[in-house]
Amino acid sequence: MQFEPGDRRRVLPRHLRPAPAPEVFAYAIRPARSADLPHIREIYNHFVSNSVVTLDERRSSIPYWREKFALLSRLGLPFLVAVSPAGVVLGYALAQPWAGRNAYRYTVEDSIYLGPGAGGKGLGAALLQELIDACEQLGIREMVAVISDSKAEASIRLHARLGFVEAGRTGRVGHKFGRDLGTVYMKKSLKHTGRRKLFGRRPVSGG
């Protein structure tokens, strides 16, 4: 159809216009790389400075994350990132030893943080499920989450949705931004489909 000079194209009424295609939130989950650490640090430091989701009060450094990355790599524990199609780190999840004692070698603590704008889109559940699957392949038997008891309902719901149950609470064990804070402990028993290697040295048997 051709239009003469001065003609105006007809604009369809709003109810007859085609609906715009919804914006798709796309991401891929993969093992973290050393090049991801500055972005992971910024995500974590956002919560250090602006929330009580973490009880850390000091912003973390690159050497801190390099050390943690090296430790988890040495122990063979999963450290995952979610990245956008453009390669932007949207969030991360990791499993770290629950405690340093050798007897705790089958138990890990999870840690999940999403960058600004990445929440409420199912990414947290996807990261946590991938973390659980990876730990089961490693032979891990128990996963523990330690959650701040203040404004942490979303994290509690996320863990409950994936099979975690509350295992206890501690009140007023932390203090941040002038407030006393407690923690909620949640735990999930894993299928441990693989065989777990020891954290550290094998204990010496008595003679």
Structure description:
With 207 residues, the chain is α+β, with helices and mostly antiparallel strands. It is built from four helices and seven strands, in the order E-H-H-E-E-E-H-E-H-E-E. The chain has helices at residues 37-50, 62-75, 123-138, 153-161; strands at 28-31, 79-83, 89-97, 107-114, 142-148, 165-176, 179-189. The chain has a seven-stranded mixed beta sheet with strand order 1-2-3-4-5-7-6, with helices on both faces. The longest helix is centred in the middle third of the chain and has 16 residues, at 123-138. The N and C termini lie far apart (96 Å). The relative contact order is 0.14. Residues 1-5 and 200-207 have low confidence and may be disordered.
Strand order of the largest sheet: 1-2-3-4-5-7-6
* Percent of residues in β-strands: 25-35%
Structural class based on helices, strands and sheet pairing: alpha+beta
Based on CA atoms alone, the radius of gyration comes out at: 23 Å
Instruction: Find the count of extended strands (DSSP E, 2+ residues).
Output: 7
Uncertain segments of ≥5 residues (pLDDT<50)?
1-5, 200-207
Provide the helix percentage.
25-40%
SSE order, as H and E? EHHEEEHEHEE
Give the CA-CA distance, first to last residue. Answer: 96 Å
Largest sheet: 7 strands, mixed
Number of helices: 4
Mean pLDDT: 88
Using the alpha-carbon principal axes, give the shape.
Answer: globular
